[in-house]
Amino acid sequence: MPESIPSWAEKVRAGDRRSLARAISAVECGEAGGVELLKRLFAHAGSARVIGITGTPGAGKSTLVEKLAGDYRRSGARVGIVAVDPTSPFSGGAILGDRIRMQSLAGDEGVYIRSMATRGQLGGLAPTTHDVVTLLDAAGSNVILIETVGVGQDEVEVARLADVTVLLLVPGMGDDVQTFKAGVMEIADIFVVNKADRPGADRVEQEVAAMLSIAPRPDAWRPPIVKTVATTGEGVAAVREAIEKFAAFGSERGLVEQRRREHWRARLLELLRQKLFERAASPRLRDGSLEGLVDALVARRRDPYSLVDQWIEEFGAARVAPGRKSR
Amino acid sequence: MPESIPSWAEKVRAGDRRSLARAISAVECGEAGGVELLKRLFAHAGSARVIGITGTPGAGKSTLVEKLAGDYRRSGARVGIVAVDPTSPFSGGAILGDRIRMQSLAGDEGVYIRSMATRGQLGGLAPTTHDVVTLLDAAGSNVILIETVGVGQDEVEVARLADVTVLLLVPGMGDDVQTFKAGVMEIADIFVVNKADRPGADRVEQEVAAMLSIAPRPDAWRPPIVKTVATTGEGVAAVREAIEKFAAFGSERGLVEQRRREHWRARLLELLRQKLFERAASPRLRDGSLEGLVDALVARRRDPYSLVDQWIEEFGAARVAPGRKSR
Question: How many other C-beta atoms can be found within 10 angstroms of the C-beta atom of residue A299?
Answer without folding.
Answer: 10
